């Protein structure tokens, strides 16, 4: 955490940064995950509410009128566990299914641990995002899908950074994606 805190303290002085917890981070394991606690970040703490934001998982963003929904991947990973072996259904197919179902965690709370909610389901998609990304996947994949009402959504499966050293950049105007391997440069 100290290394990550140093990295955030340097990065967030240049650009805005949002940090979302994942499956193995010091946050609750049940969904929706709460943001990482500020006490974990001694060096970057002064940047909170300026250029550094801790967000929950899943999370919605509105960036220059581009609506984004993102998860760190537990929803798709849980669905992968229970697909029939004969079906070659990848992350993008499962993401498209959750988008069409309008529910980003259809296996919660049955197999994906989820906090019981009495008032509202936090996993319902009341609107179609322009961008729907899922992190910590096996490989980079992306495609555009069109909904029944003609709305389009860019689906992005982002590879695990810890396993690949890869990040994905997306142009907010064209929705084009670029995979960057920080260990080897652009691909």
TrEMBL record:
Keywords assigned by UniProt, alphabetized: DNA replication
GO biological process, one term: DNA strand elongation involved in DNA replication
Pfam family, one: DNA_pol_E_B
GO annotations of cellular component type: delta DNA polymerase complex
Residue ranges constituting the DNA polymerase alpha/delta/epsilon subunit B domain according to the UniProt record: 3-141
One MF annotation (Gene Ontology) recorded for this entry: DNA binding
Taxonomic superkingdom: Eukaryota
InterPro entries noted in UniProt: DNA_pol_a/d/e_bsu (IPR007185), DNA_pol_delta/II_ssu (IPR024826)
Gene3D superfamilies given in the database record: 3.60.21.50
Family statement drawn from the similarity comment of this UniProt entry: Belongs to the DNA polymerase delta/II small subunit family.
Name listed for the protein in its UniProt record: DNA polymerase alpha/delta/epsilon subunit B domain-containing protein
The organism of origin for this protein: Tortispora caseinolytica NRRL Y-17796
């Amino acid at each position: 955490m100290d290394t990550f805190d140093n990295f955030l303290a340097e990065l967030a002085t240049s650009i805005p940064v949002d940090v979302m917890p994942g499956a193995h981070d010091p946050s609750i394991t049940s969904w929706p995950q709460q943001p990482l606690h500020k006490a974990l970040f001694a060096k970057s703490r002064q940047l909170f509410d300026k250029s550094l934001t801790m967000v929950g998982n899943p999370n919605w963003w509105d960036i220059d009128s581009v609506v984004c929904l993102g998860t760190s991947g537990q929803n798709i990973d849980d669905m992968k566990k229970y697909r029939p072996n004969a079906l070659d259904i990848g992350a993008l197919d499962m993401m498209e299914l959750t988008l069409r179902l309008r529910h980003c965690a259809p296996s919660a709370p049955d197999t994906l641990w989820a906090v019981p909610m009495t008032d509202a389901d936090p996993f319902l998609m009341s609107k179609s995002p322009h961008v729907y990304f899922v992190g910590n996947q096996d490989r980079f994949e992306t495609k555009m899908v069109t909904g029944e009402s003609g709305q389009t959504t860019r689906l992005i499966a982002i590879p695990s950074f810890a396993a690949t050293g890869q990040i994905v950049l997306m142009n907010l105007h064209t929705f084009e994606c670029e995979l960057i391997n920080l260990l080897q440069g652009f691909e």
